[in-house]
Amino acid sequence: MTTDAAPSPSPSLGSELAPDSIGGSRKGHAPAASEALLLEVNNLRVEFPTRRGALVAVDGVSFDIAPGEVLGVVGESGAGKSLTGMAIIGLLEPPGHIAAGEIWLQGRRIDNLRREALREIRGRRIGAIFQDPLTSLDPLYTIGRQITETILAHLPVSRREARERAVALLAEVGIPAPERRLDHYPHQFSGGMRQRVVIALALCAQPKLIIADEPTTALDVSTQAQIITLLQRLSREHGAAVMLITHDMGVIAETAHRVAVMYAGRIVEIGPVRSVLRAPSHPYTAGLMRSIPRVGTTGVPLAQIDGAMPRLDAIPPGCAFHPRCPQRFEPCDRDRPWLLKTGDRLAACWLHGDPRAV
Questions:
Q1: What does the DSSP assignment read for 35-72?
Q2: N or C: which end of the chain has fewer CB within 10 A?
Q3: At residue 264, does pLDDT exceed 70?
Q4: What is the rounded CA–CA span in Å between residue 210 and residue 129?
């Protein structure tokens, strides 16, 4: 499931990462220096075997999240954002599997655990919020039954205490009249209210990590703002780390502390959200920012990135973005760039480093 070489936690944004040291080295246990980090993902590689060879969907991804921090993960469809989240939760659909790398949660490695052990972690230590709340809620059971059963599965409480906690959770996420709504079915809630219920479900067992996969995509603008504010408050008050997966740069700007930009299964830039969005270091990040509509620019054509995300069986050598990059030059189609220091962030682009020095 993993390689023999055991990579270590991701270095801070002030360091440079070479191809064989994206995560450094870890000798079978989490070092004391990483105890403050809640989640560490090191050199994660997700593959889908086929008759023509393995398709690499996530390729050498490394990042970490501290308690109370919101890390935004952004990129076009097919960038590998959701697969990274699924790998962390342990919900990859076969034949997809983790082929290399390590995932550490609160100093404990979890990518090599058995299914039963992972099932205990999901819900109890890792909560998940998915894009479509209807796929997360059973239409045949009341909201109250679904929340209380989840609480009973993970916490040593009585059924009465579980119901009381369910009411408190619904109130916390902004459901009016929670005692009455507890006995309603999912179809009796609006889309925004269902998403709040899903957030309550994710918080049932007081998890330390919440993976939110496109939690605002299907919602109107005003409801999006409410959900964003709710996620910020829950992260701040509960001290939970949040991995926020989205394609919406506006949501990232409003919610995240740091942002990781993904392309073709790789992180191409990672750093503080304000500096990355204001002055992108990678041409792909810059292209994403230029494609955002601007207020007061009527009559101006919307900028777009030429081309499309490559298929898994057609990822080009060197920098995966180079066929679409307006700033490409000779090394880009030959040598893969690894994350290099540029200011207060890391960017995988030869514009910020000499390939001969790596």
A1: TT-SEEEEEEEEEEEETTEEEEEEEEEEEEE-TT-EEE
A2: N
A3: yes
A4: 7
Structural contact between residues 207 and 126, judged by C-beta atoms closer than 8 angstroms: yes
- Name residue 302's amino acid: L
Strand ranges in the chain using DSSP code E only, listed in sequence order: 39-50, 53-65, 70-74, 97-105, 108-109, 126-129, 209-213, 241-246, 258-263, 266-272, 340-342, 345-347
Q: How far apart are CA 245 and CA 133, in angstroms?
A: 15
What radius of gyration do the chain's Cα atoms show? 21
> In this predicted model, what pLDDT tens digit does every residue of 27-67 receive, in sequence order?
333 333 444 899 999 999 999 999 999 999 999 999 999 99
Instruction: Pull the structure tokens for residue 173.
Output: 């996420």
Nearest to 204 by CA among 155, 137, 138, 139: 155
User: What is the distance, to the nearest Å, from the Cα of residue 22 to the centroid of all Cα atoms in its chain?
Assistant: 18
| Dihedral-angle region of residue 80 (phi above 0 means left; psi in -120 to 50 means alpha; beta otherwise) | left
Q: What is the mean pLDDT of the chain?
A: 85
Question: Can you tell me whether residue 328 is helix, strand or coil?
Answer: coil
Residue 321 to residues 147, 273, 307, 310, Cα–Cα distance (Å): 44, 21, 10, 9
**Side chain identity, residue 326:** P
Q: Compute the distance between CA of residue 64 and CA of residue 271 in angstroms, rounded to an integer.
A: 11
- Per-residue model confidence as pLDDT tens digits over 178-225: 999 999 999 999 888 998 899 899 888 889 999 999 888 767 788 788
* Per-residue pLDDT, 354: 61
**Would you say 205 and 154 are in contact if contact means Cβ atoms under 8 Å apart?**
yes
Return the sign of the alpha-carbon dihedral for residues 201, 207, 210, 216: positive
Asked if 101 and 109 count as a contact pair (C-beta separation under 8 A), the reply is: no
From 39, 41, 194, select the one nearest 125 (Cα to Cα).
Answer: 39
Structure tokens at 234: 């829950």
Tell me the backbone φ, ψ of residue 188, rounded to 5 degrees. Answer: -90, 5
